[in-house]
Amino acid sequence: VLDTAPDADADLRPRPPVVTIMGHVDHGKTSLLDALRGTDVVRGEAGGITQHIGAYQVTLKDKSKITFLDTPGHEAFTAMRARGADVTDIVVLVVAADDGLMPQTIEAINHTKAAGKPMIVAINKIDKHDANAQRVRERLLEHDVQVEAMGGETQDVEVSALKKTGLDELIEKIQLQAELMELKANPDRDAEGSVIEAKLDKGRGPVATVLVTRGTLKVGDVFVVGAESGKVRALVDDKGRQLKKADPSMPVEVLGISGTPSAGDQLQVVENESRAREVAEYRQGVLLQKRTTAAPA
Ligand code: GDP
């Protein structure tokens, strides 16, 4: 059995929040993710090329950090949750101020509530002449989302992803929410993480984007991930930089995996390669058995 026991309180340190953006199609999720990426103070200095690895982390002027899952769409959120890889701390619900609440907005509200996640409403496209933020706030009430202006506790903010307005305020609200949650993890232990996405890269072999959930993942670490195993050959961040290690809430591409894992798989660092192979082989056996029993007679 792998060591997945909870950490002692004394070992816990603050970690950045992990944010997922949800909302109706065309309401501006991708645009907002792009605009927020631009708030990163180290991106320019890094000199690397922006990589779309399924998540990115921004470092703000005050040195604090926020991780954004860059996989807009409710499917990723629900699929990861169904697999026990519930990595999101905060949901930002994007609602276009001209369009108002639409079916996928309501779906997103329901998913967020079912997951018990705090929500921040970003009323987007506020630059448009037919924007009506107040109507959005009123319609939200019908779905039991009471924003502050309506006497409730859900934070809301008017933004324009296009004109890049309201972004600082949105970030402040995310930070405020994160502070209330006192998000913590133990960085000084063998790492664990969740696979955000994975692919077979022509040049690099199997590559998985892993969000570190606790511990610090290092180059050279031996691990199991789903039914695969490996030894970290390289860690690459969303700025294309090669890292030596990745700490909690950090998303990184992991190279050196025996095969391609699935989104939602858990990565765990183990003591040695024979142990890693043993766990992976056991899991492959279980998978095979599942498929055989599931096969129609
Ligand atoms: P997604 O489907 O939710 O990811 O939405 P996109 O980010 O792809 O945006 C859909 C469309 O709305 C695109 O044509 C964007 O340029 C436009 N859009 C996004 N944000 C804004 C905004 O703040 N103002 C205006 N006027 N247009 C926006």
Automatic annotation (TrEMBL):
Residues annotated as transmembrane: none
Subcellular location: Cytoplasm
Annotated positions binding GTP: 23-30, 70-74, 124-127
Chain ranges of the Tr-type G domain: 14-184
Functional summary from the UniProt entry: One of the essential components for the initiation of protein synthesis. Protects formylmethionyl-tRNA from spontaneous hydrolysis and promotes its binding to the 30S ribosomal subunits. Also involved in the hydrolysis of GTP during the formation of the 70S ribosomal complex.
Protein family: Belongs to the TRAFAC class translation factor GTPase superfamily. Classic translation factor GTPase family. IF-2 subfamily.
Record protein name field: Translation initiation factor IF-2
Included range, full protein: 430 to 726 of 944
